[in-house]
Structure to design on (530 residues):
């Protein structure tokens, strides 16, 4: 049975105009007020659109609950304001005494509003919240706009205008702004290789609209799962409603298990159904369903998923259906799905359904080649995250400057996952001797080991810069220099830092190798001649 649409939750500060409108009406009707000397420019007439910003939004609007945030200035009027709002809306009205002393202080307003969100906001109800931004000081308006649309996103923000500014009789307008979150909010955990501007645009524009499906593309290890979790968290979600499904594992089971994992099943509905199960779609309600490795789903089962996405309804194995309109879908794959569609291995209609908003996460080697500053930031963020995940490694890690050429010249077939692995082992080695500075030998030891198995992380036909038919370097000279440095560093490792032997491996004169190394500020160890 389809669920009934849940009613709104309205949130608003009480402002001076609201108090003025309420006070004028009470005085006109002979009712007591907290301040008999308070002057009001309101006539005391109760009429739609003339009752103050709060009631202009709440009057006649269907809602389940109304929260009125009260500063100290208006505490004496709070109960009268609740009665005033109740005249235009029968929803339960809760007064929130914030204890706010200075409504012009951004810091105080933030603390008071943050306390409200922690106590009364939940991501499962995010879409139900309607925030009135008009009442209060500029500080109150700015903080509520930020918290309601960025930090606790998912609901609607409204502004209320005076009758003279009404358009076609409408005084309430939804506020829609393309917010861009600060870069630091993405520097958590393992990280991803998405461009920061792209990341922020996805989060602020597309992700809050659950009807938009997001497809993450890129090689294994570029951080697709991390990116999906950041989208989810950035839209107000928590771990409880982020559901990850590995489609490669689903593909290994039979059709009933495939449906049961996604949609749920009743006990005894098929062999192996020993109890009632709740499917991934239902568990992800109010949050995000992350379909990892979606390209691995066999062609014959893709129609099952397509139908659920199209109809926003699932059919449990054994009977029963449910609507799933409040689930954000994020899919990910390291396959070229466009090529899979052309080859007939992936349904075109499913491709268009999941790829409304495609996001390409580039390989780490491309970052090292084209954006050294960002590569360095990625390395530093990864080092910082090691301490958060492994308390034993929590310290201020730094890299010797001669480590950077080593990292920049490596091909990173395992991308950020491999980078994290190499840095983790290097930190463990340095920690064992009580240090906090990673030297070239610490990193080189584990990098050389990883390089021996790089072929395992580079499936045949993987697109690299040289293999892409339409690839053109942004700066040919810089690109060639970077490639030259990469091969020189690789040859030096294979030659055990023997410069003459490295020159022989590369088929170039010793003097030419020395020239390039010294020009790049990498003279190498002494005693290199064979």
């Amino acid at each position: 049975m389809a669920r009934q649409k849940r009613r709104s939750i309205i949130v608003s500060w009480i402002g001076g105009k609201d108090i003025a409108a309420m006070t004028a009406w009470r005085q006109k009707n002979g009712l007591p007020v907290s301040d008999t000397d308070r002057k009001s420019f309101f006539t005391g007439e109760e009429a739609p659109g003339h009752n103050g910003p709060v009631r202009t939004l709440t009057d006649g609007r269907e809602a389940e609950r109304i929260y009125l945030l009260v500063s100290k200035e208006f505490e004496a009027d709070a109960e009268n304001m609740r009665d005033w709002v109740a005249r235009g809306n029968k929803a339960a009205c809760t007064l929130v005494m914030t204890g706010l002393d200075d409504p012009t202080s951004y810091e105080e307003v933030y603390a008071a509003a943050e306390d409200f969100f922690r106590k009364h906001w939940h991501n499962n109800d995010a879409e139900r919240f309607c925030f009135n931004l008009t009442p209060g000081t500029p500080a109150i308006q700015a903080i509520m706009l930020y918290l309601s649309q960025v930090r606790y996103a998912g609901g609607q923000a409204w502004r209320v205008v005076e009758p003279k500014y009404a358009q076609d009789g409408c005084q309430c307008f939804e506020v829609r702004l393309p917010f861009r979150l600060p870069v630091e909010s993405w520097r958590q955990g393992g990280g991803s290789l998405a461009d920061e501007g792209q990341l922020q645009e996805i989060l602020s524009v597309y992700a809050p609209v659950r009807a938009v499906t997001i497809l993450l593309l890129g090689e294994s290890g570029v951080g697709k799962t991390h990116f999906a979790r950041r989208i989810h968290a950035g839209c107000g979600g928590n771990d409880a409603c982020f559901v990850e499904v590995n489609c490669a594992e689903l593909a290994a089971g039979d059709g009933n298990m495939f449906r049961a994992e996604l949609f749920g099943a009743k006990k005894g509905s098929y062999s192996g159904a020993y109890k009632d199960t709740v499917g991934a779609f239902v568990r992800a309600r109010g949050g995000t369903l992350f379909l990892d490795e979606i390209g691995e789903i066999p062609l014959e089962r893709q129609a099952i998923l397509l139908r659920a996405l199209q109809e926003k309804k699932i059919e449990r194995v054994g009977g029963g259906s449910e609507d799933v309109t409040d689930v954000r879908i994020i899919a990910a794959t390291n396959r070229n799905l466009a090529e899979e569609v052309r080859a007939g291995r992936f349904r075109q209609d499913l491709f268009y359904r999941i790829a409304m908003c495609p996001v390409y996460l580039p390989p780490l080697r491309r970052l090292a080649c084209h954006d050294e500053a960002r590569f360095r930031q990625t390395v530093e963020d990864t080092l910082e995250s090691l301490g958060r995940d492994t308390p034993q490694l929590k310290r201020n890690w730094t890299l010797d400057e001669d480590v950077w050429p080593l990292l920049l010249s490596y091909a990173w077939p395992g991308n950020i996952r491999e980078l994290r692995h190499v840095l983790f082992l290097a930190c463990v080695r340095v920690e064992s001797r009580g240090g906090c500075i990673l030297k070239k030998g610490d990193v080189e030891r584990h990098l050389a080991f990883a390089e021996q198995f790089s072929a395992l992380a580079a499936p045949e036909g993987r697109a690299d810069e040289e293999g892409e038919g339409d690839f053109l370097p942004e700066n040919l000279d810089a690109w060639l220099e970077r490639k030259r440095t990469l091969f020189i560093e690789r040859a030096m490792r294979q030659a055990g830092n023997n410069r003459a032997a490295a020159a022989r491996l590369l088929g170039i004169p010793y003097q030419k190798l020395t020239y390039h190394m010294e020009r790049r500020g990498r003279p190498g160890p002494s005693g290199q001649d064979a």
Remarks:
- The two ends are 80 Å apart (CA to CA).
- The chain has 21 helices and 17 strands.
- Residues 134 and 159 are 5 Å apart (CA to CA).
- The first helix runs from residue 16 to 28.
